[in-house]
């Protein structure tokens, strides 16, 4: 499918910081001849005029009688992966960039990225050694919804030095910062592109930049590079011509056509798993071998390797001047340009640095199926539209596929506990559904916190899936901390951040209610979630109300809930009292408690006795989880009344009492559940189907 590519050219001559693109040229892309291929990445130019207002993300009009259809999570089991492009798409698009006729480096913006929301930050992608600027091709559509994306294209024949590339990017950064000074600018660099990003940040410490460094080139492995340089120096200059003329291996020939068809046949959709993906990529590379050879001719490779050495030397000299926040994504299997010791040094040198290792990725992680850059940005809370990240306004809800992945990670738990969800209607009737929960916020859910928060995944996931109710949990700040040499891998807390966890504070609670959110609050906090032996189903709430009066300002509803079942899946055999008697565990517990901090420090009650530790648990043959949401307590119109501390205390004690009643009700009723234990549930599913709803006690 032919279409015109309009690109913006940034000349290398000196221009003022407010200057934008001044010259354009167009080239027609070759027509696709295969009927099975569709247009992959359309391109729009980055022009000198202000862009038209974004259309944003189209939303359906709310319909009170259409709740199920409006819920994007109701059929998430059928959700397709968010990223559907592959290495084959990259190589096909690269054909047109390799044969673009040269010219200076320039910016382009993919049309797939045109739907970004109003106020989205700018993202400048700085390519790796390939220079095409297509390294984000798998991520264009998803990132394009939250960023205004520009990609740097460096033609194959271009010989711009590293220093001049830095100046080119710097001019763009200064120009955009001058035009929109309150908009953050993200520099996403891969390999040598990461070196460009670091150098630009070092030269502009006063500009609001955020760096995402994917597999940053920190050193050159001489064991691998010297033989490569030696081989390149003895190779003839006309390798691409020899390949075509002597071996008859040309793009579009029957041989490449056959390999291209095999690449499609072994796509992930038809042959799942790692094996299918590897075969698909193997055939894709084979089918596009002429493109790869033209992308990396001998002269270009020699130039890029020399530039790489210059880049690494420059970064090591300037890294101490970088003030920008940084997210480093090193691959676990890249041994050529990546040195783990350098990554550790970077993380300790850069003032605001997060390192998230990609254990299963190789040399080109952005083109691998297992990496979703937008999801990683969500999981690290690295997205912001202003000067700093706002956990409320900058939060991006999970896609149906992301939610399905989270539930799949807890699939074993979900299948083992077969959760029963009960709620209370306005007339006081108890129903086995979530029908009794308010649809509109603000709502505050207060309840009992199981050990290690085992109740969270089923509850939050099912509320989203069945009612499209997104619970924003007020979470201990340790979930959002990145501490050097921490005892806990930060990835452990990914699910809390993806599902909308917010650091607990009075201000965040106020802002959530102002946004009419559904807020999940555990007054018992860490003390309740890390309780000790014999403390199951005990509430460790403060003596004084801490949330009622704030909730009343917004006319919120308070929904008390109880959950039982932890004593049916494990026993606590090693609690904090036991671990204090074991020197090694005592030291670990004290370090973890110090790192996490005590939000109740100074509280002389039992609530202030908070220890951060991993309890020793012995699993049982799993029983069942039961959730019971009580009748909402409506605070609308009671703001003046609840300014009286005594009145607010009465509502607080009412909510606490109803949580205790919910727990007592569930503990009593589960005794009459014929399917409380695992074996009867398995037998029922074997005869009625594995996806059927398992009955429970009579209501």
Please outline what is shown here.
By secondary structure, this protein is α/β, with parallel strands linked by helices.
Explain the overall architecture.
This protein is α/β, with parallel strands linked by helices and 699 residues long. It is 35% helix and 14% strand. The chain is built from 23 helices and 21 strands. The strands form four sheets. Strands 11, 12, 13, 14, 15, 16, 17, 20 and 21 form a nine-stranded mixed β-sheet that branches. Helix 4 links the parallel strand 7 (185-190) and strand 8. Helix 4 (192-203) runs parallel beside helix 10 and helix 7 (254-265) runs antiparallel to helix 8. The radius of gyration is 29 Å and the shape is elongated. It starts with a strand and ends in an 11-residue tail after the last helix.
Instruction: Note the quaternary state here.
Output: single chain
Number of helices: 23
Gross morphology: elongated
> How many strands in all?
21
Q: What does the average pLDDT come to? A: 80
Organism: Arabidopsis suecica
GO molecular function: diacylglycerol O-acyltransferase activity
Protein name: Diacylglycerol acyltransferase
Family: Belongs to the diacylglycerol acyltransferase family.
Helix-strand layout with pairing:
Elements: E1 4-9, E2 23-28, E3 43-44, H1 87-98, E4 106-110, E5 122-126, H2 140-143, E6 148-153, H3 162-179, E7 185-190, H4 192-203, E8 209-214, H5 222-234, H6 239-247, H7 254-265, H8 273-287, H9 289-295, H10 298-318, E9 325-329, H11 340-349, E10 352-355, H12 373-379, H13 400-409, H14 411-417, E11 420-424, E12 430-431, E13 443-447, H15 456-467, E14 471-475, H16 494-498, E15 502-503, H17 506-514, E16 518-521, H18 525-529, H19 548-553, E17 557-564, E18 570-574, H20 576-579, H21 583-596, E19 616-619, E20 626-629, E21 633-634, H22 645-669, H23 678-688
Parallel strand pairs: 5-6, 5-7, 7-8, 8-9, 9-10, 11-20, 13-16, 13-17, 14-15, 14-16
Antiparallel strand pairs: 1-2, 3-4, 4-6, 11-12, 17-20, 17-21, 18-19
Helix pairs in contact: 1-9, 3-4, 4-10, 7-8
Protein name: Diacylglycerol acyltransferase
Keywords: Acyltransferase, Signal, Transferase
Pfam family, one: DAGAT
């Amino acid at each position: 499918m032919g279409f015109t590519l309009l690109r913006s050219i940034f000349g290398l001559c000196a221009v003022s910081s407010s200057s934008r693109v001044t010259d354009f040229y167009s080239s027609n892309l070759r027509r696709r001849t295969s009927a099975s291929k569709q247009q992959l990445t359309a391109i729009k130019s980055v022009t000198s005029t202000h862009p038209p207002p974004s259309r944003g993300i189209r939303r359906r009009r709310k319909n009170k009688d259409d709740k199920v259809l409006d819920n994007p999570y109701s059929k998430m089991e059928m959700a397709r992966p968010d990223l559907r492009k592959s290495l084959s798409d990259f190589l096909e698009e690269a054909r047109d960039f390799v044969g673009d006729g040269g010219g200076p480096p320039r910016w382009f913006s993919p049309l797939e990225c045109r739907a970004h929301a109003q106020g989205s930050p700018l993202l400048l992608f700085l390519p790796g050694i390939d220079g095409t600027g297509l390294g984000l091709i798998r991520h264009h559509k998803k990132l394009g919804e939250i960023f205004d994306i520009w990609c740097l294209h460096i033609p194959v024949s271009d010989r711009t030095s590293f220093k001049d590339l830095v100046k080119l990017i710097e001019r763009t950064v200064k120009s955009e910062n001058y035009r929109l000074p309150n908009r953050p600018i993200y520099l996403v660099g891969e390999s040598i592109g990461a070196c460009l990003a670091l150098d630009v940040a070092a030269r502009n410490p006063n500009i609001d930049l955020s760096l995402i460094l994917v597999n940053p080139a920190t050193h050159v492995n001489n064991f691998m590079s010297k033989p490569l340089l030696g081989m390149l120096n003895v190779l003839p200059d006309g390798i691409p011509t020899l390949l075509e003329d002597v071996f008859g291996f040309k793009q579009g020939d029957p041989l490449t056509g056959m390999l291209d068809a095999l690449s499609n046949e072994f796509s992930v959709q038809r042959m799942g798993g790692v094996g299918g993906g590897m075969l698909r990529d193997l055939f894709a590379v084979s089918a596009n071998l002429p493109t790869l050879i033209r992308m990396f001719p001998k002269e270009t490779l020699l130039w890029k390797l020399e530039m790489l050495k210059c880049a690494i030397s420059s970064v090591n000299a300037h890294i101490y001047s970088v003030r920008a926040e940084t997210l480093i994504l090193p691959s676990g299997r890249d041994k050529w340009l990546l040195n783990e010791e350098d990554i550790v040094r970077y993380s300790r040198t850069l003032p605001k640095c997060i390192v998230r290792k990609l254990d299963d990725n190789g040399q080109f992680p952005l083109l691998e199926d297992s990496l979703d850059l937008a999801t990683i940005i969500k999981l690290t809370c690295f997205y912001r539209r202003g000067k700093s990240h706002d956990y409320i306004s900058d939060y991006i809800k999970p896609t149906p596929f992301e939610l399905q992945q989270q539930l799949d990670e807890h699939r074993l738990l979900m299948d083992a506990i077969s959760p029963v969800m009960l709620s209370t209607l306005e007339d006081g009737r108890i129903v086995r559904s979530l029908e009794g929960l308010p649809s509109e916020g603000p709502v505050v859910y207060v309840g009992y916190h199981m050990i290690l928060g085992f109740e969270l995944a089923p509850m939050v996931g099912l509320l989203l899936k069945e009612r499209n109710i997104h619970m924003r949990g007020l979470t201990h700040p340790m979930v959002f901390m990145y501490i050097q040499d921490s005892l806990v891998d930060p990835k452990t807390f990914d699910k809390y951040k993806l599902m909308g966890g917010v650091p607990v504070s009075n201000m965040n609670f106020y802002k959530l209610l102002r946004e009419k959110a559904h807020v999940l609050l555990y007054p018992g906090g860490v003390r309740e979630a890390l309780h000790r032996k014999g403390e199951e189903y005990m509430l460790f709430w403060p003596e004084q109300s801490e949330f009622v009066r704030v909730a009343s300002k917004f006319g919120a509803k308070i929904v008390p809930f109880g959950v039982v079942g932890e004593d049916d899946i494990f026993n606590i055999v090693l609690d904090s009292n036991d671990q204090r008697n074991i020197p090694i565990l005592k030291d670990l517990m004290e370090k973890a408690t110090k790192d996490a901090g005590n939000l109740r420090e100074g509280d002389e009650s039992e609530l202030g006795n908070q220890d951060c530790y991993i309890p020793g648990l012995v699993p049982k043959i799993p029983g069942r989880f039961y959730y019971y949401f009580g009748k909402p307590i409506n605070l609308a119109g009671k703001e003046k009344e609840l300014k009286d501390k005594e009145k607010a205390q009465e509502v607080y004690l009412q909510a606490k009492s109803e949580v205790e009643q919910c727990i007592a009700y569930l503990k009593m009723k589960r005794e009459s559940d014929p399917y409380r234990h695992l074996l009867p549930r398995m037998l029922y599913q074997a005869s009625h189907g594995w996806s059927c709803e398992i009955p429970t006690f009579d209501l």
